Amino acid sequence: MLAIINAELVMRNHTIPEAVLFMEDGVIKGFGEMRSTPIPEGCEIIDAKGLYVGPGFVDIHTHSDGRVFFHEDPVRCSLHHLKNGTTSLMPALYTSMNTSQYIDAVKVIRDAMEKPECGNIAGLYMEGPYLNPGFGCDRSSNPWADGVKKEAYQPVIDAAWDLARVWCLAPEREGILDFVLDVKAKNPGAAFAVAHSKAAPDQIEALIPYGLKIGTHHTNATGDLPKYPECRGVCVDETVNYNREIYAELICDSRGIHVDPYMLRLVRRIKGDDRIILISDTYASDGPVPEGYDGVTDINFDWEGEIAGSKLTLNVACRNMMKHTGASIVDVFNFASYNPSRAVGLLDRGEIAVGKRADLVITDYKMNIQKVILKGEIQNG
Is the pLDDT of residue 137 over 90? Predict the structure, then answer.
């Protein structure tokens, strides 16, 4: 049995100071205040030295380590995120891939999941294939712009069906329901996310009964549908805000460029803290930094000058969220661990509770990660 002592445990709604936590066989066996919780003889001891111990981060949407994509080097990317506290992640495969490229990338990830270095890979986040070709980075290389075609998408579903926990889509694409139904036929538990879209509220809400429950990188790569020139229309962002069933993904960079700090605070107020998911959306793109973005170091750009994801890890996103919104450390662990695990069905992790997987991080208040524990095994430090 492994025991963490002198810990400030981060629970879902509070902290437990001067605490001890026990784990064995990869799961949490118990916890409590040290003064009233005896430590069994023979325990291996980790002294947290008063630092915070929280659940490992769950990043449901990340493409890269900031330099290479997961399908190019899954070990490198997995270890990069793991050392920064992400004990579960879902590599995102982007809509710029054609059918055969998707299939090849899925195989790479499937094979990587057998390697111990990739023990934090928990499935796939399919950012495509059917997004709105007018939104997002690398728009000029979208092979899915000419219509929803079963002969093109069915091989991708067949390759990824059991790994793909989330499929992103633009609900306004003609024939998208056929795609949704074919995904559900292979995996009834699959979830959907509205992404790179200018769909009207009714088009989005029509897919909620089929499992649409996530707004991909909320307020980024979304359109507007004004009815009158003088008025702002209602579109994807408003629909995500309005519907309790839909979680809002947020990319929280240091300068508040993906999502303005005021917007972050507004989304918290509208959605409630139980429907916010922090993602890294780490991407690999070496386009030049456009004019007006001087000094920005945690965002990528494509060669057309568009924002192309981030260079974040979730510990840094948590730190930024605390800075921009005043969120507490309890709040950001919910945003980066509990909420995402619930959104994608990883119900055995994401919180400190007896019987949950022993995925843990030891960190200071500014999210400088000191130790990472994956399935009860110390990974670093």
Answer: no
